[in-house]
């Protein structure tokens, strides 16, 4: 999982991404992340029509890692992506990267079932877009899109992540939430 280098993510959809999936992700970008409880969340998602050097997230509909057992939907950094702000423990898992991918495996049974289920589409849109803003998986006990129980919305903890982490405070305070791993 990565976070954006700043509070803006530009999302590009490959042509093969089905319309229903594109709509679900676009709704998540604007409805779940740009505005929370009627207030600007501190992050902005923009859907762009061209893949350029300023695009932060590319949405793909392809078996990117055939034969690896990769999940039906996941977020990852592109090969050769620029990384920064390591988490200080020897890896860059929680650092920003550009370019990020959200990948959907077309042949996966779960994806095909999800494409026919509006509730599942709302959940997976919220879930995968959340990873692009550095939101981790949540415990099953939380009612949020960031776990695997298919709730189609963020909870207070996830919203606090966005409020604490974006825009990046300068200077970074000592008590910044641990979920802002981009900055520690």
Describe the overall structure.
With 184 residues, the protein is of the alpha/beta class. It has one domain (8-183): Collagenase (Catalytic Domain) (3-Layer(aba) Sandwich), CATH 3.40.390. It has helices at residues 19-34, 109-115, 118-132, 156-165; strands at residues 8-13, 35-36, 39-40, 44-48, 57-61, 73-84, 96-104. The chain has a 5-stranded mixed sheet. Strand 2 (35-36) and strand 3 form a beta hairpin. Helix 1 packs across helix 3.
Write the layout of secondary structure elements.
Layout: E1 8-13, H1 19-34, E2 35-36, E3 39-40, E4 44-48, E5 57-61, E6 73-84, E7 96-104, H2 109-115, H3 118-132, H4 156-165
Write a brief caption for the model:
The protein has 184 residues and is α/β, with parallel strands linked by helices.
| Average pLDDT level | 80
Shape verdict: globular
Strand content: 15-25%
Largest sheet: 5 strands, mixed
Helix coverage percent: 25-40%
Quickly count the helices. Answer: 4
CATH class membership: Alpha Beta
As a whole number of angstroms, the C-alpha radius of gyration is 16 Å
Task: Sketch the topology as an H/E string, one letter per element.
Answer: EHEEEEEEHHH
CATH topology: Collagenase (Catalytic Domain)
Counting structural domains, the number is 1
Number of strands: 7
Report the span from N to C terminus: 15 Å
Q: How do the strands line up in the largest sheet?
A: 4-1-5-7-6
Helix and strand composition category: alpha/beta
CATH architectural label = 3-Layer(aba) Sandwich
């Amino acid at each position: 999982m990565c976070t954006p280098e700043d509070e803006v993510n530009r999302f590009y959809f490959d042509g093969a991404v089905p319309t229903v999936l594109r709509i679900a992700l676009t709704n998540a970008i604007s409805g779940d992340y740009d505005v929370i409880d009627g207030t600007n969340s501190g992050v902005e998602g923009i859907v762009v029509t061209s893949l350029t050097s300023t695009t932060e997230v590319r949405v793909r509909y392809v078996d990117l890692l055939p034969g690896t057992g990769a999940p039906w939907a996941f977020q990852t950094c592109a090969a050769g992506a620029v990384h920064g702000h390591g988490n200080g423990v020897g890896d860059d898992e929680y650092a920003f990267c550009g370019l990020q991918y959200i990948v959907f495996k077309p042949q996966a049974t779960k994806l095909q079932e999800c494409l026919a289920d509006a509730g599942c589409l709302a959940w997976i849109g919220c879930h995968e877009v959340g990873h692009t803003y550095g939101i981790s998986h949540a415990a099953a006990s939380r009612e949020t899109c960031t776990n695997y129980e298919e709730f189609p919305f963020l909870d207070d903890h996830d919203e606090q992540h966005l409020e604490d982490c974006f825009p990046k405070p300068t200077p970074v305070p000592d008590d910044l939430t641990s979920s802002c791993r981009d900055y520690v």
